[in-house]
Amino acid sequence: MLDRDGKLLDQFRVVTLYIDDRLKGLTEYLNKVSMPPLLNETQNAVSSLNWKPSWLPKGFEILRHSQDLFDGEMIDSTLFSDGLFTFTLYVTEAESQQLNPDQAWKQGEYTLYSEVVGNKEITFIGQLPIATAKRIVQEVKFSGY
């Protein structure tokens, strides 16, 4: 898969898969094995966000949200996916002496885009074009400010 500039976004390789009677016993066993239940992310963590993008490309949903303390600074991160591509938004307090209000970088399938919005720095890291990353970041809305 290539982007508009002809750069490789993703590569798929096809492998032929044969399942014959030698594996039948294994698949029957796996179907009977008692597995622990799947873990479901609670929606409480997502609902406590004080920010959210007001626009996302079609099909993208929140998969996970976390808040981490790193060097005394709170970093808010949210992972989004449409089932094929993923990206994460990171929100931190902006440094007061920010020289570049926005920065973009792309290598292979990954895009990094960062922009200061008010007193917050929003950083996008993911598998979408720079123009899409920029729109997502610029459409982040904060509540309570």
Automatic annotation (TrEMBL):
Q: Which GO CC terms are listed, alphabetically?
A: outer membrane-bounded periplasmic space
Query: What range(s) does the MucB/RseB C-terminal domain occupy?
Result: 48-141
Q: Name one GO molecular function term.
A: antisigma factor binding
**Record-linked InterPro entries:** MucB/RseB_C, MucB/RseB_C_sf, MucB_RseB
GO BP annotations of the record are: regulation of polysaccharide biosynthetic process
**Which PANTHER family has this protein been placed in?**
PTHR38782, SIGMA-E FACTOR REGULATORY PROTEIN RSEB
Q: Output this protein's name.
A: Sigma-E factor regulatory protein RseB
Q: Which organism is it from?
A: Rodentibacter pneumotropicus
